[in-house]
Amino acid sequence: MNGESLKEKALVRHLKELFEREPPTFLKKIYAHVNLSTKKFREIWSQWWQGEAPPRLEVDMVPLFELREDVLLCGVEVEFFRNESKNFTDGLQQAISFGLFGFDSLVLWHIFSETMKNSEIEGYARPMREIVEGLDLPIVYFATKLSENNRFEFFAPSNYYSSTMVEPSFLLKRMKDECEKKKNPLLKNQRVLNARKTLKIILKIPV
User: Fold this and answer.
1) pLDDT, tens digit, for every residue of 140-194?
2) Torsion angle, CA of 140/145/149/150, rounded to 10 degrees?
């Protein structure tokens, strides 16, 4: 495991703790580093459904948002940028692959260090926004700068773009709103619906 992966894992744990300090009422629960490569996942799958389980995968973060009659399961891929050494498409392939596991929405979240200039961040966020919107990808794309006092500045979605730093609860509300608007199209597939049920069992969510 390289240094960048270790930093991102620590960041994901930090974000989970941050969101759990004063959780908004619509956040039912939040999970970090959900490993779908486990023997338990494959055993549950084979017990309930015919055929092979989906490919192995780990999901950085899974916020569970409460809806009126159900829950909204979001698979979030987190990529941390501290300089211009990474590619603007980093994490896209991973986020798309979450669709096979039955997440209701698929999220790619690019988080930028406070040390990066806004012009540098736009160099990543703008082309990623154009790809997601222009190709109509079923991805919710978030790009934010993270400050030392744990507040966020939005660069994507573009309708939230502002130089104002926002609280974690505001960011979660925007994520919930965007995920409700853009659902995983693979949920029309019975195999993917079965994967969603398996995922709920793994996370101990009433099926």
Assistant:
1) 999 999 998 999 999 999 877 777 789 999 999 999 999 999 999 999 998 889 8
2) 20
3-state DSSP of the chain: CCHHHHHHHHHHHHHHHHHHHCCCCCEEEEEEEEECCCHHHHHHHHHHCCCCCCCCCEEEEEEEEECCCCEEEEEEEEEEECCCCCCCCCCHHHHHHHHHHCCCEEEEEEEEECCCCHHHHHHHHHHHHHHHHHCCCCCEEEEEEECCCCCEEEEECHHHCCCCCECHHHHHHHHHHHHHHCCCHHHHCHHHHHHHHHHHHHCCCCC
Mean pLDDT of 50-61: 76
From 61, 66, 89, 65, select the one nearest 77 (Cα to Cα).
61
| Sign of torsion over alpha carbons 97, 26, 33, 15 | positive
Domains in the chain: boundaries: 3-202
Angle between helices 190-202 and 39-48 (to 10 degrees): 130
Angle between helices 168-181 and 3-21 (to 10 degrees): 100
Query: Chain centroid to CA 105: how far?
Result: 8
What is the per-residue pLDDT for 56?
67
Q: Is the pLDDT of residue 42 over 90?
A: no
